[in-house]
Amino acid sequence: MKCPRCQHENAPRMKFCGECGSPFNGASPTAPSYADLKTEVESLRQALTEALEQRTAAAEILRAISGSPTDVQPVFDAIVRSAVRLCGGVFSIVLRYDGELIHFVAHHNFSRDALTAYREWFPRRATADRLVGRAILECRVMNVPDVTAATRAILTKPASAA
Question: What is the distance between the alpha carbons of residues 15 and 162, in angstroms, rounded to a whole number?
Answer without folding.
Answer: 56
